[in-house]
Amino acid sequence: MKAKSIMIQGTASSVGKSIICAGLCRILKQEGYLVSPFKSQNMALNSYVTRDGKEMGRAQAVQAEAAGIEPAVEMNPILLKASAEMKMQVIVEGKVYANMSGYEYGTLKPMLEKIIKDVYRKLEQENDAIVIEGTGCPAEININENDIVNMGMAEMADAPVILVGDINYGGVFASLVGTMLLLKESERVRVKGVIINKFRGDAEILKPGLKMLEDMIHVPVLGVVPYMDLDIDEEDSLSVRHNKTENNAREGVLDVAVIELGYMSNFTDFNIFERIPGTRLRFVKNVKQLGSPDLIIIPGSKSTMEDLAYIRNSGMEAAIKELNKKGTIVFGICGGYQMLGREIQDPSHAEGYMGKMPGMGLLDAVTVFRDKKTTEQFSGQICGSAQLLSEIQGLVVNGYEIHMGVTDFAEGCKPFVMADKEVNGDNPVKGIMNIEGTVFGTYIHGIFDNEEFITGFLNNIRKRKGLGEISSKPDYKKFKETQFDMLADVLRKSLDMEKIKMIMGLI
């Protein structure tokens, strides 16, 4: 028997679709169903690499975690990653298909629709339930022709739809009514209920409005979900996370500054810093915000050369170099790692027109962009002697790689992360540091999610400052499981889950 389904669509981006989907996945998992998330097309710079080396949207990987299953590319067959020059990288079934404009992408829709249908049918046969996520708003009437991600996807899956609106910034009634009004009649009949999300205050105040809303749109309100301060990765959560770290940062003795790039990718690499006692995480956009942190992190980028130009032209490059001379540690991940070298070369113009440009020169290394993209999970060891690596040499760390470039280093650097040579004999070095041990670069996303590594690394920075060690290691995996369970508890209390399961056909 094929899986029962539900589709969560929204009145706009960032209304909380992905978090609602994650919560429903966790609830159904708790009730004994084999449930899978699904999003036909995802547009995000946050991505994840599966065990078989395929790239998918991180939001669906998080939802898979909530469902208690391993992420698979079938959960997100189409991934779009915005890049410079109004282009985007189109990733189909986990592999790069092409770089193209939005107009060019539109011509692919018939081919992609067949792929989406085939992948979805496979998931239907393997699961009891599927929680489908839409994107943006289904009432974008200028681009709805050949839709494959909202109502078009609901039709392919023959899925009932729940519409989510965000009340946090006001206008939720207008957005829900307006969205329903702009849908075609054949689309409106698929909407079986609405959810009001991110409510602050006494829900009793809403009751008269809820009754009027139901009378207007002729579908029930399935619940009012309160504003939740949970630490679960969301596709579009950077602005929320940035505001939280800037406005409500715990005062700490160790200051960590992440350079907020225009094309920053995988900012979730740094979520764990918020769980570490005595540590303050900040995202900074300019020299004025930079200050004098103990650790500067340059993150991954979908347009490394353009983001490097921004760092240089804004004056942050000079400030970072000066701070490094004074003792601030600099750490680059993926694109950030490439920026730290002497030069970046792009002979095939994979990133555009620049060809090549000088790097920051903090690492004696040169990166050359290649046509083939590396996407693979990683397991290796910390190596090399440096004060900041003391007592963690030989430590096994896990993560994943997503990059186009190959980086070679000279005598001014030495390895600090090595892959198993039997697995990756051609290029086992996945991270290097300068001789002084004050600048580090690696291709490994998720390296900080390794609890023993981040604890040891930060403790060694604390020693340099004459501070005591962190007393406890952050069990990040256990913490995430707790957050998923808390999310499920909130949704159970807020939503009519019996009605939702009836809509799905589960009861």
Give a description of the structure.
By secondary structure, the chain is α/β, with parallel strands linked by helices. The protein has 2 domains: 4-232 and 481-504, 3-Layer(aba) Sandwich (Rossmann fold), CATH 3.40.50.300; 254-466, Rossmann fold (3-Layer(aba) Sandwich), CATH 3.40.50.880. The chain is 32% helix and 28% strand. It has 16 helices and 25 strands. Strands 13, 15, 16, 18, 19, 20, 21, 22, 23, 24 and 25 form an 11-stranded mixed β-sheet that branches. A 6-stranded parallel β-sheet has the order 2-9-1-10-11-12, with helices on both faces. Strand 24 (429-434) and strand 25 form a beta hairpin. The longest helix has 19 residues, at 476-494. The two termini are 15 Å apart.
Key features?
globular, 2 domains, eleven-stranded mixed β-sheet, alpha/beta, Rossmann fold, six-stranded parallel β-sheet, about 500 residues, 16 helices
Low-confidence stretches: 237-241, 243-250
In total, how many beta strands?
25
CATH class of the largest domain equals Alpha Beta
How confident is the prediction overall: mean pLDDT?
91
CATH topology of the largest domain: Rossmann fold
Instruction: Determine the N-to-C terminus distance.
Output: 15 Å
CATH homologous superfamily name of the largest domain? P-loop containing nucleotide triphosphate hydrolases
Work out the helix count: 16
Radius of gyration: 23 Å
Total domain units: 2
- Report the sheet with the most strands, covering strand number, pairing sense and barrel closure: 11 strands, mixed
Query: Helices and strands: which structural class?
Result: alpha/beta
Indicate the proportion of strand residues.
25-35%
Looking at the overall shape, the CATH architecture of the largest domain is: 3-Layer(aba) Sandwich
Q: Please give the share of residues in helix.
A: 25-40%
Query: What is the overall silhouette?
Result: globular
